[in-house]
Write a structure and sequence with these properties.
Elements: E1 9-10, E2 19-29, E3 35-45, E4 55-58, E5 63-69, E6 72-73, E7 79-82, E8 85-88, E9 96-105, E10 115-119, E11 122-126, E12 146-155, E13 160-163, E14 166-173, E15 177-188, E16 195-198, E17 201-208, E18 214-221, H1 230-247, E19 255-261, E20 268-269, E21 274-278, H2 291-306, E22 315-316, H3 322-340, H4 343-363, E23 374-375, H5 384-417, E24 421-422, H6 424-435, H7 444-447, E25 453-461, E26 466-474, E27 489-492, E28 508-509, E29 512-514, E30 517-520, E31 524-529
Parallel strand pairs: 2-12, 18-19, 19-21, 22-24
Antiparallel strand pairs: 1-23, 2-3, 3-9, 4-8, 5-6, 5-9, 7-8, 10-11, 11-16, 12-15, 13-16, 14-15, 17-18, 20-21, 25-26, 26-31, 27-30, 28-31, 29-30
Helix pairs in contact: 1-2, 2-3, 3-4, 3-5, 4-5, 5-6
């Protein structure tokens, strides 16, 4: 997909918005062609911003029905709407005000499948990356974290009304309508907002977290498909247990819902407490699915669930940092699959995917760093480089630090940045802080495109029992990066004898060699092993 907006977004141009939106209360009155969205936003001017600075909200494909500040309707002269923005020229000078915006959207004719759409009788949302602006006017950027309350009103023919967070009141309304309220206590960016309304079937289960909290689990599917969701439920419970055991990440809401529908074009999406999937990544039974279908379902269920901490509790400051959540979460789902299945077999499959999709990307005209520096259309950056290479970079970090320090770094990441929107620099800093390592050369893996090549030759001197290993790294230029800097490449190694057994050695010189890893930092290293 490419939507050329004409403007290029640059990493170095990032600056915080003038206003924050700490609270967002939404009421949806669902109707196929004219859904009314009432948004009550608590808007706060940030420190250091001039009182009355203009407030520029994002909004696309919206019909504005009303706008008011602190209960007073705004005259049309007080705001402008153009090119995807609603700008209030002079908001109140005080530090905080309440903005009420009423918009109308047309879910039935929303063919973009971004924002709120109606397909096969089910209302569904997709807001990553910039779909929320098709629901209401908002600061639709990931560093605006807000506590959401949602009320959904719909016909009783749509019995299931879901949104993020924990369920609140629900009940009947006049005229064959009913409502449900939801509250999500965890501040989140708008791209994690979700709403589903439909006549769906469900399977239910329960998970008790390690601190004894009971979580109600639901997987909602098109009627008649319920039994084919059982494997996904099993994978979900295993994911929840694994994330506690391996990363210390406990689930934080009273409910966790998955909705799987056939018309969802993103694959799967990690909306807080309400993951939405294309149902081909949820439904399977022994009659119709292959082994690799089961493995995929397990991996994708885990991936979206793991985002609850890596992506949702800690999110991205801006879309340049997409790998912060995606690379890390792919790394986590890879480790999960390796623990659930054969570590060697899953690793071979992951490397095959990397070589089949990411290597060609890195060698072609679209080569880009794991953390890009510019984009026109962020939807074009959900790439194998951001996801798969992003995961391999985290894996290398784990190789460099070892299991213990890596876990301590992750613990510090969760502790230090919970509830924040952060950057790759913040991520790397926690590992520097727990280990004392300087990761500045390693950080090139995020900043520089291209696949390094490493060649190795060995020679053995029987008389002195010395083995010499010559290793050289090189990297071909990529578009807009003619000169490449030398990378820090951790090379896990072992010496293996003709009988297939590990060969011991005495000392190693010529590179830093520790715990079975050779650290390449220069173009060429000649590593000498003695006592071989
Ligand atoms: N954020 C979603 C995912 O990767 C969609 O790309 O899980
Ligand atoms: Zn993801």
């Amino acid at each position: 997909m490419r939507t050329d907006t004409g403007s290029i977004f640059r990493l170095e141009d990032y600056r915080p918005s003038d206003y924050a939106i700490p609270r967002t209360a939404l009421t949806f009155s669902l109707a196929p062609e004219a859904t009314i969205v009432r948004a009550r936003l608590t808007v706060e001017r940030r420190e250091g911003v001039a009182p009355g600075a203009p407030l520029r909200l994002d909004g696309e494909k919206l019909t504005l029905r009303g706008i008011a500040i602190d209960g007073e309707a705004l005259p049309v002269s007080a705001f402008t709407i153009e090119e995807g923005h609603l700008t209030i020229a002079r908001p109140p000078a005080g530090p905080r005000f309440e903005l009420l915006v009423e918009t109308e959207v047309d879910p039935l004719h929303n063919q973009a499948l971004m924002g709120l759409y109606l397909s096969n009788g089910v209302y569904c949302t997709q807001c990553e990356a910039e779909g929320f602006r098709r629901i209401t006017y908002f600061l639709d950027r990931p560093d605006i974290l807000s506590v959401y309350s949602v009320r959904i009103e719909a016909d009783e023919t749509l019995p299931v009304l879901l949104s993020n967070g924990n369920p609140g009141e629900s009940g009947r309304l006049e005229g064959g309508r009913h409502f449900a309220e939801w509250h999500d206590p965890f501040p989140k960016p708008s791209y994690l907002f979700a709403l589903v309304a439909g006549d769906l079937g469900a399977i239910r289960d329960r998970f008790v977290t390690h601190s004894g909290k009971s979580v109600e689990l639901g997987i909602h599917v098109e009627r008649g498909k319920e039994n084919r969701a059982r494997y996904a439920m099993d994978a979900l419970k295993r994911s929840m247990a694994w994330d506690e055991a391996v990363f210390g990440c406990e689930y934080d809401l009273d409910v966790f819902n998955i909705v799987a529908v056939s018309d969802f074009n993103i694959g799967a999406m990690e909306n807080k407490g309400l993951n939405i999937f294309n149902d081909k990544y949820v439904l399977a039974d022994e009659e119709t699915a292959t082994d690799s279908d089961f493995a995929n379902i397990e991996a994708i269920i885990a991936h979206e669930y793991f985002h609850n901490w890596t992506g949702n509790r800690i999110t991205c400051r801006d879309w340049f940092q997409l790998c912060l959540k995606e690379g890390l979460t792919v790394y986590r789902d890879h480790q999960f699959s390796a623990d659930q299945r054969s570590r060697a077999v899953t690793r071979i499959a992951q490397v095959r995917t990397l070589r089949a999709h990411q290597f060609p990307e890195d060698q072609g005209p679209l080569a880009h760093p794991v953390r890009p520096r510019r984009y026109r259309e962020i939807n074009n950056f959900y790439t194998a480089t951001v996801y798969e290479k992003g995961s391999e970079v985290v894996r290398m970090l784990r190789t460099i630090l070892g299991a213990g320090l890596f876990r301590r770094g992750m613990d510090l990441y969760f502790k230090r940045h919970d509830g924040q929107a952060v950057t790759i620099e913040d991520f790397l800093r926690v590992f520097e802080d727990v280990s004392g390592h300087d990761l500045s050369q390693f950080a090139l893996w995020y900043h520089q495109a291209g696949t390094p090549s490493v060649t190795a030759t060995t020679s053995y001197q029987p008389a002195s029992r010395e083995l010499t290993l010559e290793i050289e790294q090189s990297m071909a230029p990529t578009p807009s990066e003619p000169r490449k800097r030398l990378m820090h490449i951790p090379l896990a190694f072992g010496l293996v004898g003709p009988d297939g057994r590990d060969l011991p050695f005495g000392t190693a010189a010529g590179a830093t060699v520790e715990d079975g890893v050779i650290h390449l930092r220069k173009r060429r290293h000649v590593v000498t092993f003695t006592g071989v």
